[in-house]
Amino acid sequence: LFDNRAEVTGEIGAYKNSISKTSVYVTAALDAPVLAWGDTISWRMGVFGGAARYAQAANKFKNSGVPTVGDWVFVAGIQTSLRLDETYDLRLRVMPAGKVADALFTLQLAARF
């Protein structure tokens, strides 16, 4: 059944970053449903924050105004997702990027367990 409560979630993952290296990340998010289609599909909106590891590139971000600690770059922004059958989220995240770019966008498919 459709769950209409706001929720806090944690996430860990890895991706190929813009300099063709693998980055790992850790984030937390707060989101809530805004619309539902039946009992199995909902559209959610919220915010997220965390950190991503950019080995050998964190200084580039630091020099562009993005907060860093060692190889870790702090990330935060807004997100929207389409939740399918309480198992999968198709998610779009948007975050500011200092002087690196106007904004960064990520498209994710996340499995809940």
What does the model show?
The model has no long low-confidence stretch (mean pLDDT 87). The chain has one helix and seven strands; from the N terminus they run βββαββββ. The chain is mainly β. 5% of the residues lie in helices and 62% in strands. Strands 1, 2, 3, 4, 5, 6 and 7 form a seven-stranded antiparallel sheet that branches. A hairpin with an 8-residue loop joins strand 6 and strand 7.
**Main structural class:** mainly beta
Alpha plus pi helix count: 1
By DSSP, the count of extended strands is 7
Order of helix and strand elements from N to C terminus: EEEHEEEE
Estimated radius of gyration: 15 Å
Query: Describe the biggest sheet?
Result: 7 strands, antiparallel
Summary?
The chain has one helix spanning 58-63, and strands spanning 7-16, 22-37, 41-53, 68-69, 72-84, 88-95, 104-111. It has 113 residues and is mainly beta.
Highlighted features:
single chain; mainly beta; 113 residues; 1 helix; 62% strand; seven-stranded antiparallel β-sheet
Outline the secondary-structure elements.
Layout: E1 7-16, E2 22-37, E3 41-53, H1 58-63, E4 68-69, E5 72-84, E6 88-95, E7 104-111
Antiparallel strand pairs: 1-2, 2-3, 3-5, 4-5, 5-6, 6-7
